[in-house]
Amino acid sequence: MIIFSTFLKVIKKNLFTIILYTAILLIVSVINLQSTDPVTDFSAEKPGICLVNHDPDSALSKGLEAFLQKQTDLQTSEEAGSAEEDALFYRKIAAIVIIPEHYGADVMAGKSSDIILKTSGTASSSFVKMMLDRYVRAQQAYVSTGLEEEKVVSSVERSLESRINVRITSQKDAAASSQISFYFNFASYSMMACIVFIVCLVMSSFNNTNIRKRSIVASMSNRRYTTSLLLACSTYSFVVWIFFSAVSYCLIGAPMLSASGALSIVNALVFSFTTLSLSYMLSTLIREKEAVTVIANVLSLGSAFLCGAFVPSSMLPDGVLIGAHALPSYWYIHFNERLRDLEEVNLETVLPLMNDMVVLFLFGLVFIGLSVVISAKKRQMQSFE
Fold first, then answer.
1. Which helix (H) or strand (E) holds 325?
2. Domains of the chain: which residue ranges?
3. Cα 172 from chain centre
4. CATH number, domain 48-161
5. pLDDT at 41
6. Region 309-323: what's the mean pLDDT?
7. Across 80-106, average pLDDT
8. Which of 11, 40, 213, 218 is the most exposed place for a label (fewest CB within 10 A)?
9. Distance CA 263, CA 335 (A)
10. Exposed / middle / buried, residue 305 (Cβ in 10 Å: 0-12, 13-18, 19+)
11. 11 and 18 in contact (C-beta within 8 Å)?
12. Secondary structure class of 48 (helix, strand, coil)
């Protein structure tokens, strides 16, 4: 109980720092969630164009005009004057289409008769160009078969009206998956900062020479002393994990009750264990309390920047990601991003992802092993002094 009460005193004394790290996570998460605009439906937008038809009596030009009437917001004009050019320049329309004189007769005779297309350079104008190319290719294909002009128009119309029915079978909520991934990726920074800072601070206090000597002569055995200290640190890390998991449900809501949400929470639990092991190992090396803040900030910020918590890993250079493999945060974030990209979450699809969690857990075991070795070496050195 003495160790737990001392642990709580250290937490109360540094409560502002814990609140600060948590507030950063909450503010960034809320901003991200508010900026997410989930798309629930799609409707095609017709580009506006101006058509100048210099061959109005031709069946081919009439067929092309009818096609453009269906596919675009069509305006017609006798000439492409200054008004039309201004509309194109200010992007009120996406393109100006000019059908040349004798267009129908030239096409039926196999002569070259190119449609003039002026575009605004936008995505909509590219769509117009694509539609025209598609129509012209179909028209040339039917003309080459020797059909009459009217039959060419009707055949092109039938072929371009054919549609492919697409049925989306995926039930994945992409917006929710992205929110879960973003929250837990960014939480790696806050969780690591909170755990490393407090655990190292507490351990540095208990590892003080005077405190250590008092614990040796005290009635409490060394084994019980060490066990109580580890239990206090573990309890604190567990509380941090519970808190951030609860916050995720408050911010994201029902998606956290899905399989993806549960797996993200379990991954965060493994990450908190590894971070606790790392903190305990660092505490065997750190004696000065002044160094704890620096180390906590360097570790949490460095891992967050290098492993993809602040910037998506897809945007980081390959060299940075290769080096990030040596950090536990990389495997934690890598698991979250692979989980986000799954179309369906089941045992078959999740099993390959467990490699990341296993590696993360092994990091924790390695840190514990190093802590034991370092502590043993220090005891040997102290016995010779």
1. none
2. 2-34+177-384, 48-161
3. 15
4. 3.40.1710.10
5. 47
6. 86
7. 87
8. 40
9. 9
10. middle
11. yes
12. strand
